[in-house]
Amino acid sequence: MRRAGRIWGAVALFLALGTAAGAQSKLPPPAIIVVDMMQIMRDAKAAKNVQTQVQDEMNAYTKEVSKREDELKQLSDQLERQRTALAPDVFAARSQEYQQRYTALDHDVQSKRQAMQQSYSEAMTKIENTALQIVADVARERNANMVVAKAALLYMADGIDVTAEVTRRLDAKLPSVAVSLPKEEGQAPKPPGRK
């Protein structure tokens, strides 16, 4: 008797699931496009432009920091040579001045790095948001009701990867982005996109 009850319970569950599946069959069939956002963010002209701007700024800043480090090294060497000739209080004052300059340089380097990272992130976010809008436009044009990240797929049919098309449109719509580069104190601001 129990076994018959289980069978009828299973049949009722099967019928209920079949009815629910019938109600869901009103959903449209999936129309999918695939996009590789990592490739877009790597290949887009604007992304390459941002990377070049940031790299150029960092190279120039690295030269400046190297010059300041050389000056501090010379000051340290000079101070060490004068150690025995200077009065202890004068030596202590100059040592403290050296340490303050060294700490200030370290602080400047950390601040510049953080500001550059922030500027880079803001520019890349602008590019990514524009790319996502283009993906939405392509999805509407192709009547797609689903966009799938290429990294999530093991296999896909030809013709549904729109990465190249999105990259092409992004290059046309946003060929470059001016990075808001941090200014040095006492320097005039650099015009966006110029070195």
Features:
195 residues; mainly alpha; Protein Binding, DinI Protein, Chain A; 2 strands; rod-shaped
Describe the structure.
This protein is mainly alpha-helical and 195 residues long. It has one domain: Protein Binding, DinI Protein, Chain A (2-Layer Sandwich). It is 68% helix and 4% strand. The chain is built from 5 helices and 2 strands; from the N terminus they run αβαααβα. The chain has helices at residues 2-24, 37-43, 45-81, 88-141, 163-173; strands spanning 32-35, 146-149. Strands 1-2 form a two-stranded parallel sheet. α3 packs antiparallel against α4 (88-141). The chain is rod-shaped, with a radius of gyration of 31 Å. It starts with a helix and ends in a 22-residue tail after the last helix.
Shape: rod-shaped
How far is the N terminus from the C terminus? 86 Å
- What would you report as the Rg, rounded to the nearest angstrom? 31 Å
- Number of helical segments? 5
* Main sheet strand line-up: 1-2
How much beta, percentage-wise? under 5%
Q: Please give the number of β-strands.
A: 2
Helix content: 55-70%
**The CATH H-level homologous superfamily:** Skp domain
> What's the SSE pattern?
HEHHHEH
Domain count: 1
Classify the fold: give the CATH topology.
Protein Binding, DinI Protein, Chain A
Show unreliable segments: 186-195
CATH architecture: 2-Layer Sandwich
What is the class in the CATH system? Alpha Beta
